[in-house]
Design a protein that fits this description.
This protein is α+β, with helices and mostly antiparallel strands. Helices cover 18% and strands 36% of the residues.
Length: 258
Amino acid sequence: MRRLMVTAVAAAMVLTSCSSVTKTRESAESNEAGGYAAAYTEILGQYEDKIRLIEDSEDHSFEPCALYDITGDGIPELFIVYASDEEEAHPVASGTYELAALSIYTYDEERDRAESMMHWPSFANFEESALIPGTDIDTGDTLGELVYLNDGNIIVHYTFGVLDSFYDNYLVMAVDDDDLTRVAGAEGAVSSSGSQYFVESDELTGVMDEDEFGEFIAGYAGNVEEVIFGSSRIEGMISLSDRDSVQMSYDDIMSELS
């Protein structure tokens, strides 16, 4: 199953596993006093065209921005989804996109600037790509959602299809010194030839059957504190939670930071 994983999975597995370490920082200046608001506004300005391309897309539109505190210091992190810099086939001027990246920024109070916590190159992927060199196999659409758990971890949840197979993946990330580090993962694959499920966590590691996998994922779904990017905005996505997300449009987040 793992040999079939596409770009999003490969990017996830290079992250080093370790225990969760939450760093508490002193409170920053308020929004009105500048600080993180100015730093995030600068980042948003740099990506404006690529962010608007997501929300204005005719086929794959959703609200691509969010503010939410995942570090526990009272300062929200900035979440943006934008037409990927790695995409060359469809520049911003074309009015469409195939590949969207997710970036998460935190505010470094000492340096007074936004710092990247994580970059996910294929949060949404609607392009065709070759799974095996020399072939032209459509890997299907990769769709992602992002949720915050009540234990302080976040989950990047994404699905995609390859030929007659469907993949359902959950990557658990913990805040580690203002970075996000992989601490657990669950992978499910369903095809005409059968199903495979695998879990890697502190509590359990190994192959599961469908019912065991479903119960394991229900544990995540039952502990969702907040939906940062919700699948209800991305048609066809299986969701960890049916609650409303905190995602917003480019104009709304700029108004929030002003």
